[in-house]
Design brief:
Elements: E1 2-3, H1 8-17, H2 31-39, E2 41-49, E3 56-59, E4 72-80, E5 86-88, E6 92-93, E7 96-97, E8 99-102, E9 109-112, E10 123-131
Antiparallel strand pairs: 1-2, 2-10, 3-9, 4-5, 4-10, 6-7, 8-9
């Protein structure tokens, strides 16, 4: 698992200029305000491989220790198609869609993917964020 702080940039910008706890003056935020936002999040990349069939794969302890569905947000999920292209969360065809599910009380993470051979045994990657 890798920490990816540069991925926080869009989230920080959104928090600064949206209805958040940060007060801005003339659309500027101080460095300390931005630092406080950064320190309240933890973002990681998790990876795995899709199943050999059925279009769904469950991981009992895929989330890091201390992470559960109730404090985890999925920022993105991508599955590599057999051609080498990456298809992202929400992609849908006649065989299914790319989606995911967290269990609120455990570290379980489920990946759903189209039930077709081009998506079987393919690498996937997800960016997750832990919220306090």
């Amino acid at each position: 698992m890798k920490k990816s702080y540069y991925l926080l940039i869009p989230i920080i910008i959104n928090l600064i200029f949206s209805q958040s706890a940060i007060k801005t003056d003339n659309t500027r935020a101080s460095f300390s305000q931005i630092k406080n936002v950064i320190s309240s999040f933890e973002i990681l990349e998790i990876t795995g491989t899709t199943g050999k069939s059925t279009g769904v794969v469950d991981y009992e302890n895929k989330l890091p220790e201390g992470w559960k569905g109730k404090n985890t947000r999925l920022l993105n999920l991508e599955i590599q198609y057999i051609s080498g292209h990456w298809y992202a969360l929400g992609f849908e065809n006649s065989k299914g869609r790319i989606a995911s599910r967290f269990d609120d009380s455990s570290r379980q993470f489920t990946v759903y993917f189209p039930n077709q051979t081009q998506f079987y045994n393919r690498p996937w990657r997800a960016i997750i964020m832990k919220v306090k």
